[in-house]
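Subject: Interface between my chains keeps coming out wrong

I've been trying for a while to get a sensible model of this assembly. When I model each chain on its own everything looks fine, but I need the whole thing in one frame so I can look at the contacts. Pasting all components below, labels as-is. Any help appreciated, I'm running out of ideas.
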Amino acid sequence: GAVVSQHPSWVICKSGTSVKIECRSLDFQATTMFWYRQFPKQSLMLMATSNEGSKATYEQGVEKDKFLINHASLTLSTLTVTSAHPEDSSFYICSARDRQGSSTDTQYFGPGTRLTVL
Amino acid sequence: AQSVTQPDIHITVSEGASLELRCNYSYGATPYLFWYVQSPGQGLQLLLKYFSGDTLVQGIKGFEAEFKRSQSSFNLRKPSVHWSDAAEYFCAVGKGAGGFKTIFGAGTRLFVKA
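Reply #2:
Try treating it as a single job with all components included. I did that and got this:
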C-alpha cells in the first residue's frame, strides 16, 4: 500500500523554540494532507487540512499562528510548531490522500512524531 | 455536531475467541465510517470502510463491520482473535467532501490473552 513518512520520529526541544515536522507521501501525490494531534491514551484530534498550493484550513480552536502549515509540493507538507511550550508536547500525526479524488480514496497515515518540549 | 463513541476503553479476549468492538456515531447525513488499527511505532492502518451499499463490510486481517443505521452503530467483529491483533482500535466518521476530514472515537485497547 501507499506509504507516508514523517520526520523526525521524535524531537525534544527547549521552550520557546520552533520545531518543524515533515510529512511526505512516498509513492503517490497528495493534493490534500491532514494534521492530527494525539494526547497520551486519547484519540486523534484533527488540527488542520493542508492543501497543496493554498492556505491550510484549521479546525476550530487551533491557533493558525502557532501551528504553521505549508504544503509546497504534491508530496510534502510541513507543520511548524512556533514558540513551543510544554503544553504543545504531543504526538503529531499526518495523513495524505492521493490526488485522484475519488470517493473511494483511502487516506494513508504517517507513523507520527513525538514532540517533547522541556 | 458529529461525534464517535467507543464505549469500551479496553477489552480482553482469549486467543481464538470471537471479538466485537462497539462504535456509535452521531452524524446528520449518511456517514463515511472507518475502522483503523494503531500499533506501537506504526501508523494507523485502515481495516475497513463503509461509504454506501452493502451494510456488512469485509476488511483486512479477517475483520468485518456492520453498519446499522437504526442504531447508529458500526461495530467491528472478528470470529477468531490472534495474539497479533492486540492493538488500539479506532472507529471514525468522515465529514466533508469524500469524508476525508476524520473524527475519531476515543479508541479501544484490545488485549489478547493466551
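Reply #3:
Confirming on my end. Chain B touches chain A at residues 36, 41-46, 49, 51, 90, 98-107 (CB under 8 Å).
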